[in-house]
Design a protein that fits this description.
single chain, 300 residues, Rossmann fold, 2 domains, twelve-stranded mixed sheet, 7 helices, elongated
């Protein structure tokens, strides 16, 4: 479907500097400027971005504060791996399309690799692209009947122990129904998109990203009956810590960590407001990606 032209191009970079940036960024930015696009980076990236240009003129680049960077641009280019893309998705305005370019190792949800995105970019900037719309999941932590913390995640939320030789005990509820109490190293609440990440490594199922569901995967449960399962995302999930109490951390997408108090309640639900628009690669299919990344079978 033909979209409006995209004239303000934001570029977000993975946190760790890679030698590839010394070649990619100057060439990419020059190409964009020649096509009369405004090129924007975050203010906090200014020092290292300028280094990538090796003393070349950078006056044509703009550096915006974080809020404007995630809300005022026309398109976001994420240069890095899945982690870079996920970090962007949690913060960006839901109306801004995101182009994920994989410079990492696995790159399961980044739609384009570094050798192919450039061939597509011209058409994309002219509005010739399609997107996949993904809802983020919302998490809130209540403490003494007040909201202590709230955020979103795209891949997974993990409640896990901090102490090496101790189990934690958790109570899991779905809607108004008590599901079970579990003892072990913790629990993973995954989105379908995130089912191929930590959840899969812990023995959880692969769930197609179009399925509207939670994936619940115990981490090293001290029971033979506590297996991974899939439930509809229409209900709210509730997690509480049971005695004896030990140190517990809530982690979102492996990037944000919060210490959970013994009296806290963690609530998780699919967000109706926070979404992300991921630009699709027309040459890439979901099961082709599964085969390529996890070597289930060779492409026929």
């Amino acid at each position: 479907m033909k979209q409006a032209s995209l004239n303000i191009v934001a570029i977000t970079l993975k946190p760790n500097t890679t030698p590839e940036f010394y070649n990619i960024l100057p060439n990419l930015c020059s190409w964009l400027i020649r096509r009369k696009r405004t090129v924007v980076f975050r203010e906090e990236d200014k020092e290292r971005v300028i280094k990538f240009f090796r003393s070349k003129n950078t006056d044509h680049l703009e550096f915006w504060n974080t809020k404007a960077f995630h809300e005022k641009v026309h398109i976001m280019l994420s240069l890095g791996g899945d982690g870079t893309l996920i970090g962007v998705c949690r913060r960006i305005n839901s109306k801004i399309p995101v182009l994920g370019v994989n410079l990492g190792r696995l790159g399961f949800i980044t739609e384009f690799n570094k050798n192919e995105y450039f061939d597509r970019l011209g058409n994309i900037l002219d509005g010739k692209y399609e997107v996949t719309t993904k809802s983020l999941f919302h998490v809130s932590v209540s403490r003494k009947n007040k909201i202590h913390y709230r955020d979103y995640f795209l891949n997974d939320a993990v409640l896990a122990k901090n102490d090496i030789a101790r189990m934690i005990n958790l109570r899991l509820e779905l809607g108004n129904e008590h599901v079970y109490n579990i003892s072990g190293d913790g629990i993973i609440i995954s989105t379908p998109l995130g089912s191929t990440a930590y959840s899969m490594a812990a023995g959880g199922p692969i769930v197609h990203p179009d399925v509207k569901a939670f994936v619940v995967t115990p981490i090293c449960p001290h029971s033979l009956i506590h297996r991974p399962f899939v439930v509809p995302d229409s209900a709210e999930m509730c997690l509480k810590i049971l005695p004896p109490h030990h140190s517990v951390t809530l982690t979102l997408d492996g990037q944000v960590a919060l210490n959970i108090d013994e009296q806290d309640t963690v609530m998780i639900n699919s967000s109706k407001l926070k979404k992300v628009l991921l630009i699709k690669n027309p040459d890439r299919g979901y099961f082709e990606t599964i085969r390529e990344k996890f070597i289930f079978s060779k492409k026929e």
